[in-house]
Each structure stands twice: as structure tokens, then as C-alpha cells.
Amino acid sequence: MAINSPKAITEGYIEASVGKAAAPASKLFVLGIGAGLLIGMGAVVSSTAAHGLDNAGMVRMVSGLLFPVGLIMVILMGTELFTGNALMVTAAIRGRITWGALLRNWAIVYVGNFVGAVALAALMAFFGQLNIGGGNLAVYTAQVAANKASLPWLNAFVLGVFCNLLVCVAVYLGNTSQETSGKILGIFVPIMTFVCCGFEHCVANMYYVPAGIFANMNAAYAGMIADAGINTAVLNFGTFFTANLIPVTLGNIVGGALVGLMMYFAHAEHKK
After folding, report:
1. Can you tell me whether residue 113 is helix, strand or coil?
2. Closest to 212 measured CA to CA, from 241, 232, 242
3. What is the pTM for the complete model shown?
4. So what's the pLDDT on residue 96?
5. pLDDT score recorded for residue 269
6. Of the candidates 111, 198, 194, which has an alpha carbon nearest to the alpha carbon of residue 148?
7. What is the biggest distance separating any 2 CA atoms in the chain, rounded to whole angstroms?
8. Which end of the chain is more exposed for a tag (fewer CB within 10 A), N or C?
9. How far apart are CA 252 and CA 256, in angstroms?
10. Burial environment of residue 180 by CB neighbours within 10 A (0 to 12, 13 to 18, 19 or more)
11. 3-state secondary structure of 3
12. CA distances from 140 to 68, 101, 176, 230 (A)
């Protein structure tokens, strides 16, 4: 199996970032929607498989084993994911792209990710997917959403830092191999780790929390969710944005940038 060195990966990502920064807004937006859908699918399969388990450790293990399919599809399909694009800071530091072009990419991709993930959440909540287990999947989905929306702001931020540190490590490890099997294995291990640890990923949460909000809005599930004693007061988009999405997004930026900066200063070519 051919292996790319950390230096080759770092330089390659810098050059790839030039194309990402210059891509038409329409292309970035469509690819962003695709990535939001695919990460959301990872959340769908992990929640569906784990919702009937009582042991918290088993829930995290099953989720960790299944959720990585989302990022695997994102990378192999060439879609645009906000959290992975945090590594584009390396191209900005090198001067290959402007900071304005970096922020443009982030903004367009972020909105695309949001549209794709939230649309998927609505379709899952209102068109039968959450009926699994007689509606127990809807209750589990609402509980996950309420837990995330109830995190203290600083906790959400720190969990976001660690999450995207591992996501960007996954991007690097996936690029060590030139073969599909090697890419999949490289991506799988760090993503499994972040899910098992309960770290926070802003794009995944664009599915998880809206799915819980929509489940609570669905009359077919609202009674079951209320009977489960879930704090439904936090199941609204205002709380989601302020208590979870903003701190997690900022943490994801910091975590991804830390990986990019470390690899840039350690492995990139520096002019003397």
C-alpha cells in the first residue's frame, strides 16, 4: 500500500485549498448540501442502531462504529465539509489564498451543510423514520437533542475543539493512503474515537438537534417525548443556535486550525 508522507499531505492540502477557495459559490453550496446530507446519514444510522440500548457505553460504542460512514462518504465523494475545511488556514498562512477567500468558503459551505442536514432531519422526523421501535427512536432523538442543547456554553466549546482536532486528523490519515481501503481505515479510527468520547461536531449537530426539535413538533411523538420527562423547553432553534451551534462551531474552528497549524509548521516547506 502506497503511503503519502505528512509533508506531501500538508503541501497537497495547501494546493487543494486554492481550488476550494476559487470554486464558484453555486458549486460550493451544492457540495456543502451534499456533505450535510451525508454527515446526517451517519447520524441517522448511528441513532437508529443505538436507540434501543440501555447501557450508555454500548450506545457510544455502537454509534462510534457506525457514524464514521458519514465522513467516509464525504471524503470519497469529494463534497465540502465546513469542519474539514478548517485546514484551509494552512493555505492562508502560506499566502496561497486570502483570508477573505477562506471566510467566503467557510460561509458558503457552512450554510450548505446546514441546509442539507436540517432538510434531512425534517424528512426523517415527518416521514416515518422515527416510527422505529413504536416511536422510541423519536424519543431517543429528542433526548439526544435536549442533552446537546443543555450543555454549558464552555463545555460545548471545548468538546468542539477536541472533536474537530480528531476530524482533521481523520482527513490527514485518510490522505496517507492512495487506496480506498486505506482511506476508509484512516478516516474511521479518529471519527469512532470522537463519537465514543461524546465530542461535539457542528455539522452532525445540524442534524441531531433539529431532528429532536422536529420530533417534538410532530404530534405523533410529542406525547411520548413529554412522558419521557425530556426537557422540551430547550428544543427550539433559538436555544440550539446560542447554546450549542455557536460554541461548537467556534470550538471546531479552533480544533481544526490547531491541527492545520501544527502540521504546517512541522511539515510544510518554509522559504528561508
Report:
1. helix
2. 232
3. 0.96
4. 96
5. 80
6. 198
7. 67
8. C
9. 6
10. exposed
11. strand
12. 20, 40, 37, 10
The residue with cell 469542519 is: 83
Q: Where are the alpha helices (H) located in 78-152, listed in sequence order?
A: 89-94, 99-126, 136-149
CA-CA distance, 263 to 172, in Å (whole number)?
Answer: 10
Residues in the chain: 272
pLDDT tens sequence across 188-235: 999 999 999 999 999 999 999 999 999 999 999 999 999 999 999 999
| Distance between CA atoms of residues 47 and 138, nearest Å | 10
pLDDT tens-digit readout, 21-79: 999 999 999 999 999 999 999 999 999 999 999 899 999 999 999 999 999 999 999 99
To which residue does cell 422536529 refer? 214
Task: Give the angle 183-15-272 at the CA atoms, nearest 5°.
Answer: 120
Contact 90, 171 (CB under 8 A): no
Q: Helix (H, G, I), strand (E, B), or coil: what is residue 176? A: coil
Check whether 137 has a pLDDT greater than 70: yes
Q: For residue 258, give the C-alpha cell.
A: 490547531
DSSP structure class, residue 232:
G
Angle 246-267/202-217 helices, nearest 10 degrees? 160
Q: Return all residues near 214 (Cβ < 8 A) that are at least 6 apart.
A: 121, 122, 124, 125, 126
C-alpha cell at 30: 451544492
CB 225 within 8 A of CB 130: no
User: Quick one: pLDDT at residue 83?
Assistant: 98
